[in-house]
Each structure stands twice: as C-alpha cells, then as structure tokens.
Amino acid sequence: MPPARSPRKEPPGPADESLPLVRLGQGDFTRDLRAEDLEPHHPKNGATMSLLDSVITTTTPAPPKILVYGTPGVGKTTFAASAGALLLDCENGAGAVPGLTRTPFLKSWPEVQAWLAEIEAQPPEGLGAVAIDTLDWLVQRIVEYVVMDLDKKSKGEVTNTLSSAHGGYFKAREIVNNIVSRDLLPLLNAITDRGIAVILLAHAANTKITTPEGYDVRLAAPDIPQWVAPTFIEWADAVLFASRETTGERVLTTEGTSNVTAKNRYGLPSKVGLSWKDLSDAVQQGLERQSTGT
C-alpha cells in the first residue's frame, strides 16, 4: 500500500504576515524557507503581468537530485538508508539492509509511477528523501512497458525488442526517452519542489568510449543504456561514483576523470565519505563558499 497520507496544506495568501517555514531536505540539507520565497514575483495593484514579472530569484537551494552509482555491495543502499530515505524497490534486493523504509517490490513502470505520484501529492509527514533502487532496473521496467504493453500490434509478446516493437527502427527507444523526459523526471522534479531530496541508485558499468583523438578508453559509468544515460546525468545536481579505497574506506568520487563519470554543482572536494552526513556536510560547505565567492 502507498504510504500514509498527510494533509496537503495550501500556501498562505500574500497578506499573511506570519508565513510558515517550509522545511527543505533531510538532516544537514534542511533549510528554513518562507513559503513566499517559493513563489515567483507578481505585479501589484492589478498591473498587467509580463514574462519578466515571473522571474524567480533563488534564495535557498532546492533539495539535491543525486545519482549515486557503484559496484555491488559497496554500500549504495546503506547510503540511502543513512539519509532516512523512502526507498522505491525496483530490484527486490534491499531486504537485507537494516533500518530501511521501502516499498514492496515494484514490478512495473505503472507501479513506480503511481508511488511517485502519491508521494508528490501527499508526502508522508517528515519525509526528507526518496531513493530509487536501482535506476538501471527502473529503466528496464520502462523498456518492458514500452515494448510489451504499449505495442498495440503485438501487445504482451515477450519476443518484442527495442529494435522490433512499434514498427521497428528502434522507435521504442524514442518512446522510452519520452517517458523519461516527460513523465519520470517531471515527477522527480515535483517531489523536490515539495522539499524532498531525490537519490537515484545505480550499478556501475565499465564502458568503452572513443576519445575525440580516436583512442578507446575504459570509463566507469552508471549501468544504464548509453542512449538514455545523458538525460539522467544532465538532470542530476551530482553524479557520484561509490567505491572502496585500498585502505578499505568507502568514498564518493565527485569530479569526472578520464576513467570515471562524475560531476557536481556544489564545489565538492574530489572525494567525500560514503555517508549522507559526510556528503551533506560537504554540500553545505560548498554552498557557503559559492555564496561568499571564496
């Protein structure tokens, strides 16, 4: 069953001088933000509104959108648990992690979509983060939905493939991309708009790419199809590679190298500890440096 609902509160009107505080994120990501700061500026005294009147000034950073990928067993799900996240179980492999709040095993894209819509519409009281475990399996669920459920000519055929469904010529890929960009990501954005961080967990793949100079190199990257991966990488505020150092310490690589896909918008150090507290502390420090220009 979806999580218990909490009443959805309407924002106060402009005349309310005691505007409530909206809590953004979980733990050290939590910020105080007045409800009026979430709204675009509006003209007063009945003046005609122009496009420039809708310009938004960011006063407080939104909750983070993070993609964390790594090898099996490195601690990705434990990382999500340390964030107090509600985990959407697309893989059926999180049952052994103690202290984890998770959904039942979600076997299809419509099930995942229903849960995300429910969380956005009526988020559980105090929820600070939502995690998807794992992104590679969620993409697979979307592929199955497109090639088996949406193909009217051969609906339900297990022989359908991305190259053959919907008339062939890989049209199914474009449909998958449309669902990601027009259905999935808008839902995740709406969840962050409600003050909830989003964490996408993924396995790591050792992919081969060709450099502009024509050299083939190996690159650690999220284990999702290369024809959809750029959409998620561009969407995320941070793409972090979880690994274990030779010392045994588990870390997140935050900056891309010739061998690792990674990025961040927070000015993080090149590596931080694989825990929500370590990451949130580093993000907080990075945001403070960005705000002061130091």
Brief synopsis:
The protein has 294 residues and is an alpha/beta fold.
Indicate the topology:
Layout: E1 21-24, E2 31-34, E3 65-70, H1 76-82, E4 86-89, E5 101-102, H2 109-121, E6 129-133, H3 135-149, H4 171-193, E7 197-210, E8 216-222, H5 229-235, E9 238-244, E10 250-253, E11 263-264, E12 271-273, H6 276-292
Helix pairs in contact: 2-4, 3-4
- Note the overall shape: globular
Strand content: 15-25%
Order of helices and strands: EEEHEEHEHHEEHEEEEH
Amino- and carboxy-terminal Cα gap: 48 Å
CATH architecture assignment name: 3-Layer(aba) Sandwich
Count up the domains.
1
Q: How does this structure look, described?
A:
- By secondary structure, the chain is α/β, with parallel strands linked by helices.
- It has one domain (64-292): Rossmann fold (3-Layer(aba) Sandwich).
- Helix content is 28%, strand content 21%.
- Strand 9 and strand 10 (250-253) form a beta hairpin.
- Helix 2 (109-121) packs parallel to helix 4 and helix 3 packs across helix 4 (171-193).
- The protein is globular, with a radius of gyration of 21 Å.
- The model is unreliable at 9-38 (pLDDT under 50).
